[in-house]
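Q: I have 342 residues here and want to know how they pack in 3D. Can you give me a structure?
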Amino acid sequence: MKTIHTEKHRLRNSKSELSGGLLVSPYECPERVDYILARLKQQSLGEIISPNAFGLAPILRIHDEHYLEFLSTCWTRWKALGYQGEAIASVWPARGMRQRKPTDIEGLVGYYAFASETTISDGTWEAALHSADVALSAQALIASGEKSAFALCRPPGHHAASDLFGGYCFINNAAVAAQASLDQGAKRVVILDVDFHHGNGTQEIFYHRNDVFYVSLHGHPAEHFPHFLGYADEKGTGEGEGFNLNLPMSSGTDFDTWDASLALACNRIMQYAPDILIVSLGVDTFVDDPISNFRLQSDDFTRYGERLGKLGIPTLFVMEGGYAVSEIGTNVVNVLAGFEGN
């Protein structure tokens, strides 16, 4: 399996994250990729190649142009006002307020953010663009006939909605890749999200559509971020009704329970008969992940990679969450190696 990777991810190297009422060093950091690359090379899983540049056109198929303009100019405008820290939301158009876009950058950050843990810093926009190129380059491999490919994206993407950022995400890499597949002739696409946190952005983007079936296994939103999407009764609307499947699970879920949900998801995926499967690959379901609380062990990632391989569908893995513990590399590669074993 080929891996697409760029060192440009290091342009996103923010210094602050709001967590537990404190500004702490971000859990989403460059070291995450270092662990994964080291394990990929150790296991000789396949060639690691650089992405091509695709420009804004495929991203504009998913994201609002004014939102992208905001992302591309936010840091410059923030610094021009003399602010010393990174751009972080401090006010939102909450219930009872008007959804009117401000002109001031402080107001715009809140208008386009859905959570305040994620800052915008120098290099964020550039890194997000390169991350989308990674996903699109891996998608192009699948389109050319490869059975599988791994997009080692950073920053991740599944929390980014059509015009919202948060959860460490700015451009929805999996969604951009899914739309590219459709634009190139695919009729049906599945996005299977195995990250601990629900991919609220991916759900929002495709909630009214039947050409992308979104399936998510995640921590229950009553207990876990992003809290306000991810319930089992969210099944899509309009043409998209029945094409959104959420499988939330409680804190402390072990592999047997998690795997039962994956088996259900796989049955639904096979019924849909997609042309391509895109896996939003978060490995923060690991028992020792610092911000999650499922109980999967490293060997479990091999086991579910094998299950995905048995589906026999061309599969694009897109990196999402899983935070800077050394096992992140082992767990990612275990999924990919398990898949390749079939």
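Q: Anything worth noting?
A: Residues 124-143 form the longest helix (20 residues). The CA atoms of residues 35 and 234 lie 35 Å apart.
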